[in-house]
Amino acid sequence: MAELSTILLSRRIKAFPLFPLILLLTFLVSGTLMSGLLFLLWIVIWPLSHFYYRQLSYYLIYPVWAQLVFLADWWAPSEVKMFTDAETERLIGKEHAVVVMNHGSSDLDWLIGWLVCERSSLLAATKVFAKRSLSHVPIIGWIWRMAEIIFLDRNWQTDRTCISTQIQKISQYKNPVWILLFPEGTRFTRAKHEQSLAFAKKAGLPQMKHLLTPRTKGFVQMIEAINESGSTIRAIYDTTIAFEKTDHDPTLMNLIAGKPVKAQLKVTRIPIGDVPLEEEACVNWMHDTFKRKDEVLTDFSREGSFAGRSFSLPRRYYTLINEIFWASLVVALFCYLCLKLTASSYFWVLPALIGCGSMALRYLADVTVRSKSSSYGETSRRSAPPSS
């Protein structure tokens, strides 16, 4: 009971607006600084050596992404169980791979994916498919531009070339890299599910209860590029994510308020050579994969857990140390600024900054929702490229 009271008190403290604003301010200041340094590195080092740029940029990208993972790792300590065999557990974080995930109805699927990447020492070496518009988002988009993220325009002529080019670049990485892929292209909602069912019925595709019909055209192009480039990508991790039921919804705003989530991931390692190269067979492979995912989620909804062997990757202290360092620095600077403002005629700037910070927090939280949305059903699910 004492422990429960401590947890509840901790949540009340974390929900106090000042603390989320400190986290936001820390992210904005450190993210802007790291983006600037990364830009200088990109101008000076990239033209001379792609290898050394990638090695050095890792240490500028990690401090920013680690602050996001910190939310689920330490701020609201969340449980993440992985269900897979011993051989796959041994290989996690040690090879180039494509991680094929489902979105679900939560806006935390991407963050749980990043948490697994961090605990596998791959956080700053993780790539995603993202809409081109996200490249303009402050800090996140800036860093993605210089981190060789795969941006898509929803124009197949340009996207096809972009996918092939980026896969060739990723194949040059000496250290392991993961590509996180969400073939559904958008979050699960009732309206989008109804559109998905209607499309699947018309196209003769599997009708699923828990998932949307996946986009396949970009995946086919990616598999083709992997094989043509002699890529070092050796496997696909078919990863199905689900959240256990708690007294609150698994959302980013609840996480910021100190409310942890309980996530489970069912992982099946598939050698890249087992994926068909012929276009129609590759398309069918993806649909069959999502049909199996849907069956796994049906079992989860009935049993409350995935079946089989499970383990948890150990939480690392790097994200905590990183957050303490940046937060201490930023809070010290902020306090100094507050003292200067209150002693001057510009004291009104302080509440204005707090108000702007509150709006910025809402904006960044909304970005995670919009980045998972799309005009579902307006384009063919057989031909639309994947989106992160």
Description:
With about 400 residues, the chain is α/β, with parallel strands linked by helices. It has one domain: Glycerol-3-phosphate (1)-acyltransferase (3-Layer(aba) Sandwich). Helices cover about 55% and strands about 10% of the residues. The protein has 13 helices and eight strands. It has helices at about 1-15, 20-45, 50-75, 85-90, 110-120, 140-145, 155-170, 190-205, 215-230, 250-255, 280-305, 320-340, 350-370, and strands at about 80-85, 95-100, 125-130, 150, 180, 235-245, 260-270, 310. An eight-stranded mixed beta sheet has the order 4-3-5-2-6-7-1-8, with helices on both faces. Helix 2 (about 20-45) crosses helix 13 and helix 3 (about 50-75) crosses helix 5. It is globular and about 70 Å long. About 40% of the residues are buried.
Q: In summary, what is this structure?
A:
This protein is an alpha/beta fold and 388 residues long. 54% of the residues lie in helices and 12% in strands.
Q: Which percent range describes the beta-strand content? A: 5-15%
Helicity level = 40-55%
The end-to-end span amounts to 42 Å
CATH fold-level name: Glycerol-3-phosphate (1)-acyltransferase
Order of helices and strands: HHHEHEHEHEHEHHEHEHEHH
Tell me the name of the CATH class.
Alpha Beta
Mean pLDDT: 86
Shape: globular
- Number of DSSP E strands: 8
CATH architecture identity: 3-Layer(aba) Sandwich
Please tell me how large the radius of gyration is. Answer: 21 Å
Which secondary-structure class do the elements indicate?
alpha/beta
Family: Belongs to the 1-acyl-sn-glycerol-3-phosphate acyltransferase family.
GO molecular function: 1-acylglycerol-3-phosphate O-acyltransferase activity
Pfam families: Acyltransf_C (PF16076), Acyltransferase (PF01553)
GO cellular component, one term: endomembrane system
